[in-house]
Hints:
The protein is an alpha+beta fold and 152 residues long. Among the domains are: 19-58; 60-120, no CATH class. The protein has helices spanning 20-58, 95-115; strands at residues 64-68, 77-80, 83-86, 90-94, 140-143, 146-149. The strands form 3 sheets. A two-stranded antiparallel ribbon has the order 1-4. The longest helix has 39 residues, at 20-58. The chain starts with 19 loop residues before the first helix and ends with a strand.
Amino acid sequence: MAKKPEVRRKIPVRKDLLTVEDREALKAEARKSVLAEMEQDARDAFFQEALREARQAHVPDEQMLHVTVDLAPFLPYVMLDEVQYFHGYSYDVPRSRAVVLYEQMQRSWQHEDETHGRSRFSPGRRPRSIVLGPRDAGTVTRGVNGPIVAEL
């Protein structure tokens, strides 16, 4: 059988035992300790920022790009990784995120075109090889202002 660990009873704290000089010295020491913590936090934050900048300089996907969000009228914003990017605003984002933003903008406009009858697959939008040449000379064609005769 395992023995139970001994439980030591803690003596209650009595702050009244400290002298005024001791209290002032402890307060000064506490202030120094807090300033040292703040200085270390500032060093850590600066180091992380410098590390991020160094990565951006050498890794293409980490380079920052300036993106202006241009979405179709039905869409007020795009959300990526719980961050909203609003139409009409400009953002500095890493290249990997900029690629996704550009794709979302393009797809929103594709959807807008398709819902308004401007499909990219519509025969009216497909390029056609229409060439007028000598064989078409003298052919009457219907124009906006009446019949037109092609002359060469």
